[in-house]
């Protein structure tokens, strides 16, 4: 099943659906809708436990709107009788658009930006004779920064390669 870019945009345009997909990716199997709604309400409110009216509102919107939308798009398998939801194998096509880094909630762009900024500051500090940093030659800082950017790029390509491999092996 191919998900169109319009469907992907529609799915990811809603923050509750994004949080639901992120939480489903963290799990290894079916999640009860009640548990999922509790988690989303915690994220939205920043409180643990979240307020009951918010939990109920999130639960209703999941059951009436978000889970049926995700199910119709083929991203999740939603069992409305058992009130359980699981990611389908097609969820990977959405994940590419979310671009979340494997560690924490940083995107690849955030990681590249951070590595570039740290490298730039180290080189600048070395050129301006900043204490501690100026001990190392700017050329060495430049080389190290470029090596680190290359390492991050290789890691991203490597993880992408295995995600594609896993996706293809699921379809065999």
Commentary on this structure:
It is a single chain. The protein is mainly α and 172 residues long. It folds into two domains: 5-95, Arc Repressor Mutant, subunit A; 102-170. The protein has seven helices and three strands. Strands 1-3-2 form a three-stranded antiparallel beta sheet. β2 and β3 form a beta hairpin. α6 runs antiparallel to α7. It is elongated. 16% of the residues are buried.
Q: Which terms summarize this structure?
A:
66% helix; 172 residues; Arc Repressor Mutant, subunit A; 7 helices; 3-stranded antiparallel β-sheet; mainly alpha; 2 domains
Topology of this protein?
Elements: H1 5-12, H2 15-26, E1 31-32, H3 33-45, H4 52-72, E2 76-79, E3 84-87, H5 92-98, H6 108-127, H7 138-170
CATH topology of the largest domain: Arc Repressor Mutant, subunit A
Class inferred from helices and paired strands: mainly alpha
> What distance separates the N and C termini?
14 Å
Computed over alpha carbons, the radius of gyration is 21 Å
């Amino acid at each position: 099943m191919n998900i169109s870019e319009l469907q992907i945009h529609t799915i990811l345009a809603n923050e509750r659906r994004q949080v639901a997909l992120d939480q489903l990716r963290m799990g290894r199997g079916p999640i009860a809708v009640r548990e999922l709604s509790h988690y989303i309400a915690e994220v939205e409110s920043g409180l643990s436990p979240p307020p009951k009216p918010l939990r109920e509102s999130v639960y209703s919107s999941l059951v009436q709107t978000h889970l049926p939308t995700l199910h119709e798009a083929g991203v999740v398998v939603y069992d409305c009788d058992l009130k359980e939801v699981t990611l389908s194998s097609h969820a990977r096509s959405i994940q590419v658009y979310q671009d979340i880094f494997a560690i924490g909630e940083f995107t690849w762009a955030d990681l590249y930006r951070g590595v570039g900024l740290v490298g730039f500051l180290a080189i600048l500090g070395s050129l301006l004779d900043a204490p501690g940093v100026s001990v190392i030659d700017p050329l060495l800082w430049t080389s190290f920064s470029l090596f680190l950017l290359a390492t991050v790029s290789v890691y991203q390509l490597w993880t992408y390669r295995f995600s594609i491999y896993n996706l293809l092996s699921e379809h065999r």
